[in-house]
Amino acid sequence: MNYRIVNYPLFLVMAFLVGAGICTDSHAQKKDNLGKEFYLAWGPNEGSNDNENVFDLYITGPVATKGYVEVPAINYRQDFTITPGQIRTINLPDGSNFGPTVEITQTETVVKGMAVHVVADTEVAVYGMNHKMYSSDAFMGLPIDVLGTEYRTMNYQSSQTTLGGLSANIPGQFWAVAVFDSTNITITLNASSSNGKPAKTPFNILLNKGDTYLIQGDADIKDNDLTGSLVESDLPLAVFTGHMRAGIPAGFNNVGSNRPSRDHLIEQVPPVSAWGDSALVIPYFSSDNPDVVRIVSAEDNNTITVNGAVVGTYNAGQFYEIKALSAPASISATNPILVGQYAHTSEYGIASQPGDPAPYGDPALALCYPVEQFTTSYTFILIQNASAFTGNFVNIVVDQTGVAGMILDGNPLNAGVFKPIAGSSFVYAQLRLPQGTHNISGP
Q1: In this structure, what is the dihedral angle of CA atoms 280, 58, 271, 264, given to the nearest 10 degrees?
Q2: Exposure winner among 38, 59, 81, 107, fewest CB in 10 A?
Q3: Are 24 and 31 in contact (CB under 8 A)?
């Protein structure tokens, strides 16, 4: 089945973080990131102080509707209603005060009924956030009708450091969520797991509807990196990918210290059948240092081009890395690719030295979708948490013919804020906006 992906309703912007939308077309049947049913899951985040946890759902939709959220394993249920053009926030159980939590912590173990199940009367778009003190990221949820049976993961290598003479190593990770009973899954890792499963050796698991299965890399191996690991199944399933808490680039420490500044990475990865063969990547506005970009190949003999120059030919599960994205980049390939953009570790950490610039931003992961997947209107949210997120930005990419007539929150956008992307017909703008819900549309 061939898919075409386009963005739809909800951008999640969390200081330096943007989540994108997905839409698929198969012959006459149109599928997008709007759906009536979702299975999501929250993986382990190494951030501190469980009483600071925020595991949130953000739900929006084009029409008024109602629905519910449930997690059978912890006997949780919450009803909700949706107002078009607005975001409904649901605070999920977060483990504070020794209460229940949606966070999955058991590795290489089938955890029954731990998925967060979202059901709505009419189609909605769903996003999730995993926030702990000093560590957060967010993801876009995919409804069950766009899920597939083949996935490749987007991770980062183990984050290693020694603090006070003790190891503080943290792994990459991904997890599968079944949406149907009796789902047979085969996983082939690109690096060894924390429990000793070797790379390049397939193993099988069986999940029922709502069950989850978490894999973490070996944090004590310096270059352990799960990126490109293969997840296959006989029935559609959901796969979430990222890192428990990464420092980016590996080995980078805050100025004047031996401490990295690390953050949780998470995205729900689209199935390989929904990947494209191009992307435009815009640097995060607030980064202290250039971003990192990874381009994962879906197939063998895949020639990847960046800004018109061939950077290499890659096989399935291999990736090319732009180590320092200093300017907008145009990416293309001869076969499908998945593009991930990583924010750089902040240079000055949490507590700056007197006279140092304030820290701004930290590692985060966003997937970058092909230009043919764009659409003409979005509702997006800048997370309303002034103490956790002090700078809130949005990147806008549009064909230059579409600049005239763009409307943001009811007001025309000034064409003068857009800059050209070399080698393409596209332009981009980077705006700082207040926290809360925003709406953008254009021709």
Answers
A1: 70
A2: 81
A3: yes
